[in-house]
Design a protein that fits this description.
five-stranded mixed beta sheet, Nucleotidyltransferase, domain 5, 3 domains, 15 helices, alpha/beta
Length: 462
């Protein structure tokens, strides 16, 4: 046996997972409240103590950790055109595991700068222009950012002809030069920028969030938790070397404050008569719905679907729906303890999944041209995806997880939404996806086989 301890310092809970990488087994999982306000090590030690009640005392050969504590990576991204470089900038940030507060397009205004100062991001991603294209916008925005009142790391990943001049304008500030996120029109190049953002997280953000002492208890904080999640999804989908994955998938992580959606799929048009609109989105994509969550963002669900829709799903009158949503918003630690609240929670979860996956998936619209009817596709066509993998406490601990997850699927009432049509629902019951993303950095084969056993039952019995 070769035991490894995997730790996820979350914003609410610190989760620990013990695995045996020689026998591809999960030895146990446990959690405790993340004590980020005092000493984060206290929550970590309590989680390990809870784990030992299940596994007994284990001398771990290695320990690895990821983190989204204290809100994770707070970022803003800046680009030129909303549908092009600004979108590319956002994709790069989200794929790196950041929480993108806002994406700015065109020239920054004085009002934009006041917003940025108030938000106080951990990292700024500055992009704009294809290589050899527009340089005025990115240079202007660099000049505006030079007036920031504090030294925020700025990643410059725009027009290569203007990048070094941007660095000169920003002077003594902490800057990092990367390849252009969109070197040619419609062509994404986000991996170098994602790598740089993760490195900044490791070197600077971990210390700033008070996680450096916790890092001493493990072999280091390897990556942001959302990045670990995306890595796990990609490994489960694609496989590793000769070990096969399960194929294209969509991942849903429903939380109290946000809902993260992942897709590992090409998403190219299914029909010859369909034309792509905008940029080709990345094969491994992450999106974050900051207004969709089961407690802190519960009003966002109500605003997105309306009380009539929630009333229909829950079987509760509309006035009562509004009252219950207000209650949940003011009691974020509440766990349903009666039938009415269970119905309300069920309806909210269904609506949250439906809304978040709809926003993540692409869309199809009919356009009449002189040559006849044409279809325009924006985003990714996920209709052929084989699996929907669900995780997050709000889904894992729900009574009707599979029923809720089916709201991620294609609905004939909204034919323009390109969600999965006939996907199988898989549930991360033991909450191990982030841990497996971590493990895959050192033991990819073990991480893949454990996920196939615990989540996909691929070649195993349930």
């Amino acid at each position: 046996m070769k035991p490894i301890l995997l730790v996820d310092f979350g914003s609410t809970n610190t989760k620990v997972t013990a695995v045996d990488v020689e026998n591809y087994e999960v030895l146990g999982t446990a959690a405790a409240y993340t004590t980020v306000e005092t000493d984060i090590n206290n929550g970590f030690r309590e989680a390990v103590s809870n784990l030992e009640k299940i596994t007994g005392h284990i001398e771990y050969e290695e320990r690895y950790a990821c983190s989204s504590a204290a809100g994770g990576l707070k970022m803003i991204s800046i680009g030129l055109v909303p549908e092009l470089t600004a979108q590319a900038s956002r994709e790069a940030s989200l794929g790196a595991g950041a929480k993108v507060w806002k994406t700015y397009s065109f020239n920054l205004t004085k009002g934009d700068m006041r917003e940025i100062e108030e938000y106080h991001p951990d990292i700024i991603l500055l992009t704009g222009g294809t290589d050899g294209g527009n340089s005025e916008c990115i240079l202007y925005n660099a000049q505006m950012l030079s007036s920031l009142s504090y030294d925020c790391p700025i990643v410059i990943a725009g027009n290569r002809c203007a990048a070094e001049e941007c660095q000169e304008i920003l002077g003594e500030r902490t800057t990092f030069l990367c390849e252009n996120v969109m070197p040619k029109l419609g062509e994404l190049n986000i991996e170098p920028t994602q790598k740089q953002i993760r490195e900044i997280f490791l070197k600077r953000i971990v210390q700033g969030k008070g996680l450096s002492e916790a890092a001493d208890l493990v072999s280091g904080i390897i990556m942001p938790t959302p990045s670990a999640m995306l890595t796990a999804m990609e490994l489960l989908s694609d496989g590793w070397e000769e070990l096969r994955g399960i194929g294209e998938l969509v991942g849903v992580d429903l939380g109290g404050a946000t809902t993260d959606i992942y897709s590992i799929a090409e998403g190219s048009p299914a029909n010859m008569g369909t034309v792509m609109k905008g940029i080709q989105e990345p094969y491994a994509k992450r999106s974050v719905e900051g207004d969709i969550g089961m407690r802190y963002s519960v009003h966002g669900i109500l605003e997105a679907v309306g009380d009539r829709r929630l009333s229909k799903i829950a079987g509760i009158n509309r006035q009562k729906v509004n009252e219950l949503v207000d209650y949940l918003s003011n009691h974020t630690d509440y766990i349903p303890d009666n039938e009415e609240m269970e119905k309300m929670d069920y309806a909210l979860a269904c609506a949250a999944v439906e809304t978040a996956v709809s926003r993540h998936a692409g869309s199809l619209e009919q356009v009449y041209t002189p040559c006849g009817l044409t279809y325009l596709q924006s985003g990714k066509d996920l209709r052929r995806v084989k699996y929907v993998v669900v995780t997050g406490g709000a889904l894992i601990h729900a009574k009707h997880t599979e029923e809720i997850a089916k709201f991620a699927l294609y609905d004939e009432s909204t034919p323009g939404s390109l969600r999965p049509e006939n996907a199988e629902i898989l549930v991360d019951r033991k909450y191990i996806l982030a841990a497996m993303g971590l493990l895959s950095q050192h033991y990819p084969a073990a991480a893949l086989e454990i996920m196939k056993k615990e989540i996909a039952y691929y070649g195993h019995k349930k």
